[in-house]
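lol forgot to send this yesterday, sorry. struct tokens for the thing we talked abt
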């Protein structure tokens, strides 16, 4: 395979207004298209053969969501390289197909029913807690389930490179200096063991890159205790590190680690996204939360109430879905 980087991907990698996760995701999807087209220049492939590209996407990916994700990367090319008007014919074909796929997914979300793949990987909130509590205190697996299993609402953020900073409770100057730095995400962990840690996020899935906000929340006493136990077992400067290299994960590397770990723990293809579905479905089941509570939960999870509603899956009686609390 030709190792020369396509100019399109070079341009995307330099698009600083996009998150590193987004840039990497776009390039991986576009590389698949380029490879399928014999590594011809992407601009030529997309603008001259849009129908063939769309046919290949449909034939290669059965999931509607994956098809849409592939087309999102293509539309990003037209936007970033300012090709919408210059190559309007091919752009309109991709946009039309995106709109069709998006409509299918939006309509499906209204039913609050999972796909077959999601059913196969679902882990109920109660089962997750049972497994988490059986794991050794201080283990990496227990810490993963503690962060994504309900000790705090699981965020639309993967803590693949989240630094840990130890600081004194009264050291406000150091705290403010950390808040002003440009590293993506970190946890401020006081030396005082009676004080819970604080999670600081600058990068998360719903972050507005043009008008970024700083997300901050307490870890609470229980999750802080889990983190401290893990650090006692394995001292380090990041929440999660690669076993093989001892370095922080990349976004994709952390997602792969989480999938492998969840498969081993639960015996089914669960993902961090499915854990968010599980948590929201558990919390919102049977109308337990008021509108105000739902709005607060949505803020805590870094998304809108509309997205929250799509994450909730309906009762098993109506959908044939596994019992949420069994």
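and heres what i got for the seq, position by position
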């Amino acid at each position: 395979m030709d190792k020369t980087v396509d100019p399109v991907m070079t341009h995307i990698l330099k698009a600083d207004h996009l998150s590193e996760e987004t840039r990497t995701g776009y390039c991986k999807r576009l590389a698949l298209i380029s490879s399928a087209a014999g590594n011809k220049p992407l601009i030529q492939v997309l603008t001259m053969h849009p129908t063939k590209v769309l046919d290949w996407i449909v034939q290669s990916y059965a999931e509607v969501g994956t098809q849409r994700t592939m087309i999102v990367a293509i539309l990003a090319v037209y936007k970033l390289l300012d090709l919408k008007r210059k190559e309007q014919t091919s752009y309109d074909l991709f946009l039309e197909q995106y709109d069709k796929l998006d409509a299918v997914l939006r309509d499906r979300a209204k039913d609050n029913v999972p796909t077959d793949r999601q059913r196969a990987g679902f882990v109920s909130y109660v089962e997750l807690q049972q497994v988490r509590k059986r794991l050794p205190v201080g283990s990496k697996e227990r810490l993963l389930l503690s962060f994504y299993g309900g000790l705090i609402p699981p965020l639309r953020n993967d803590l693949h490179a989240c630094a840990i900073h130890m600081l004194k409770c009264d050291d406000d100057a150091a705290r403010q200096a950390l808040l002003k730095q440009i590293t993506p995400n970190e946890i401020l962990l006081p030396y005082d063991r009676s004080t819970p840690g604080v999670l600081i996020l600058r990068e998360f899935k719903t972050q507005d890159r043009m008008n970024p906000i700083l997300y901050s929340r307490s870890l609470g006493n229980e999750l802080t205790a889990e983190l401290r136990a893990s650090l006692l077992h394995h001292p380090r400067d990041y929440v999660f590190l690669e076993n093989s290299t001892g370095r922080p994960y990349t976004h994709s590397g952390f997602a792969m680690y989480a999938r492998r770990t969840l498969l081993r723990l639960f015996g089914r293809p669960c993902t961090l996204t499915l854990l968010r579905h599980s948590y929201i479905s558990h919390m919102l089941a049977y109308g337990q939360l008021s509108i105000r509570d739902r709005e607060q939960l949505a803020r805590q999870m870094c998304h809108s109430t509309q997205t929250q509603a799509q994450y909730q899956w309906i009762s098993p009686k109506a959908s044939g879905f596994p019992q949420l609390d069994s």
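The longest helix spans residues 88-110. anyway ping me if u want another try
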